[in-house]
Structure formats: C-alpha cells, structure tokens
Amino acid sequence: MKPQSDSKQLTDQFGRAINYLRLSVTDRCDLRCRYCMGEDMVFLSKNDVLTLEELYEISAAFVARGVRRIRLTGGEPLVRKNIMWLIRALGNDVKQGLLDEVTLTTNGTQLPGMATDLYDAGVRRINVSLDTLSAESFKAISRRNKLEAVLDGIKAAKNAGLQVKINTVAMRNFNEAEIPELISWAAGEGFDLTLIETMPLGDVQGDRESSYLPLTAVKSVLDQKFTLKPSDHRTGGPARYFTVGDTGSRLGLITPLTNNFCDGCNRVRVTCTGRIYMCLGQDDHIDLRAALRSDSKPENLNACLDKAMGLKPKGHDFAMSGGEMIGKVNRHMSHTGG
Ligand code: SAM
Ligand code: SF4
User: Fold this and answer.
1) How far apart are CA 3 and CA 34, in angstroms?
2) Full domain range(s) for residue 138
3) Ligand 1: which atom is nearest the Cα of residue 336?
C-alpha cells in the first residue's frame, strides 16, 4: 500500500494511522542509568538542539496531520531550561481541542518543584521511570543518589492530581527479585506499572546480555504470586496489560525481544535535533531541520512527513539469538527519546 500523501491523516505504507508523537526535548540528563548511557556520555552541543519554538512548530505540523497525542521525553525533559513554555503551549492546544493529550516520561527528580505547574499547564498523566525502591540499588543503577527526590516527586505528582504510571526496566542480577515488591507498591499507591525488557540501544560501556531478563520468565514467576487477568486495555503502544488481583491497577509488559507487537504501531519519534525516526529499532530517519529553517516551511515540513510515512518499517529487528542481542542500534535511548 502507498502512503496516503494527499490525505490529512498521516498513514504509513502498511495502513497504520500515525496519531502519536514522542518528542525528545533534550539529550541531557541528571542521572546516568547504566542501560541508557555511560558515565562519561558526550552530550550534543546546545547549537545542535532545536529551540523550544522550533519544537513547537514541529508539533504543530504533526497536529495538522492528525497527531492527537504528544509525549515529551529525552534525556530528561524536565531539565531542559524553560521547558514549561513548551508544555504550556501544548497544554493550550489540548484546551482548544487541537490535541487530546500532552504527557511526558520523566525520571521524576524534578517533580517536587514542577508537578503542580505541569497540572496547571494541562498535563494529566505522566510516566515515571523507577527500577528499584532501594536507595543503594538506585545509586548503583543510575550512578546518582537521588531515590528520595524521585519518591518525593512521585508523591508531589499524585498530590497535584496527576495520574502516574511507573516504568521499570527488568534486569537480571539487579531488580529481578524486587519486581513483585515494586508491583505491590505501585498497586498500593494506585499506579499502573509497566515492565520493559532492556533493548540494545547505544554503547553503554558494559554488556547488555548479562542483565537481559526475558519477561516471559518473569511472568511465570509473577503468576505464582498475583492473580494477573489479561486486560484489553491498549494504548496503541507495545505494552500488553494485565489487571493485578482486585487492586484495579494494571501491569504492562513491553517485550521487544521476546515478542514484538509492531502491527498496531501508531507512533513516530522526533529527536531534539529534529530528526524523525519512524521506529526505535531502525536507523532510517528524515531530518526536519532544513525544512524548519526554509522559506516554504509548511510545504517542506509536510513533504518530509509524507516521506517519513513511506519509510516506516513493518517492525523492529531486536531479538535474542544464540545468547546475543541482535538488531543493535548505535543511537542511545536518551537521544531518540524513550
Ligand atoms: N529520562 C526520562 C526517564 O528516564 O523516564 C525519559 C527518557 S528515558 C530514555 C525513557 C525510558 O527509556 C525510561 O523508562 C528508561 O528506563 C528507558 N530506557 C532507556 N534505555 C533503555 C534500554 N536500553 N532498554 C530499555 N529501556 C530503556
Ligand atoms: Fe536519564 Fe532517563 Fe536515560 Fe536514566 S533512562 S539516564 S533518567 S534519560
């Protein structure tokens, strides 16, 4: 099937409507999670990163082509200077009915001071990444001593009225034994929790295979401890959901290596330098920066979006083979945005 370049709605070559944008606003971060980046990560020069106004113009181009949800990510989106300007602008689009939702994925460290501002700007849901409830383990995995700030941030978000979902990367020899406790904690707080398999994105000074934990194995263990009922809750994303006992909370499983769920993919990602990546697991991209800085901006941006639709692959190539991760991509997750 050909991409439908004449229609308003962005639709890829496999007929999937693209209505969800993940927009990375910075590659910088105040943590150094071992599966995401090295300690001595080299960040982009500030000149290479789009201005907040340019990020908003890109969002507007996607909204005009049928995108209804935007998730800000990074790096850590809340460490970008003046990020509330962009969040307020997008929140305003939600208030005007141009967008259904603006949300973000955050490590939570900045939430104590920002949660109320987020709510006031129109954000209603956030994802907070948290791999452990132990201060010592948090420091070991993120190389920073900030668990308390994250837990305070989660509390502040809840108090501000934000719906919180926890994202946890499941790792062998790290949080494998703690996963049931994390699920019980999240359910007790009224949060959904999604477990994610570690993916081979970027060089992180260490082998990923030794910490790779297939969620199929984790699920078998969890089935002994919880009543997990399959749920038909869907977000158009790769997670499959289960309700946890009678708590009403959900457990999501994102299994890029053991099982991919690319058929219903509804999203593309844009980096803070203005590249559209059609898939987390592929290097094909289209650079929007030149179009953004050209004289015929709207036409050129639209042409780039149409071209991108023709390049979106059917699925990613991540897999385990003979104990090795295949389908590796050189970009770090912090560059493409989680
Ligand atoms: N800094 C924010 C945070 O941590 O939530 C947003 C960006 S972070 C790159 C987004 C998500 O990607 C986080 O939930 C993180 O745990 C996850 N992530 C990073 N590197 C990953 C990898 N190699 N495999 C799987 N998940 C990864
Ligand atoms: Fe930072 Fe998020 Fe990457 Fe951790 S996962 S280093 S918090 S960008």
Assistant:
1) 39
2) 20-164+263-336
3) 9
Please check whether residue 232 lies inside any domain of the structure. no
Dist. CA 6 → ligand 2 center (Å): 38
Q: Is 20 exposed, middle or buried (0-12, 13-18, 19+ CB in 10 A)?
A: buried
What does the block give as tokens for 268?
Answer: 């593309």
Using CA positions, which residue lies closest to atom 8 of ligand 2? 75
Ligand 1: residue of 30, 33, 193, 197 to mutate (most ligand atoms within 8 A of CB) is 33
Query: pLDDT at residue 3 above 60?
Result: no
Closest ligand, as measured to the CA of 127 = 1
- Tell me the per-residue pLDDT of 112-143, one tens digit each, with 9 for 90 and over: 999 999 999 999 999 999 999 999 999 999 99
Angle (deg, nearest 10), helices 147-160 and 135-142: 100
Alpha helices in 65-146 (DSSP H): 83-95, 111-121, 135-142
- Pairwise CA distance, residues 44 & 14, whole Å: 34
**DSSP assignment of 244-276, as one string?**
ETTS--EEEEE-TTT---GGG--EEEE-TTSEE
Residue 181 domain flag: no
CATH number at residue 97: 3.20.20.70
Burial of 330 by CB count in 10 Å (0-12 exposed, 13-18 middle, 19+ buried)? exposed
Residue pointed to by tokens 């494998």: 176
Phi then psi dihedrals of residue 58, to 5 deg: -65, -45
Domain membership flag for residue 159: yes
Q: 0.85 exceeded by the pTM? A: yes
Judge if the beta carbon of residue 334 lies within 6 A of ligand 2.
Answer: yes
Total domains present in the chain: 1
Distance CA 210, CA 171 (A): 9
Residue 61 lies in a domain: yes
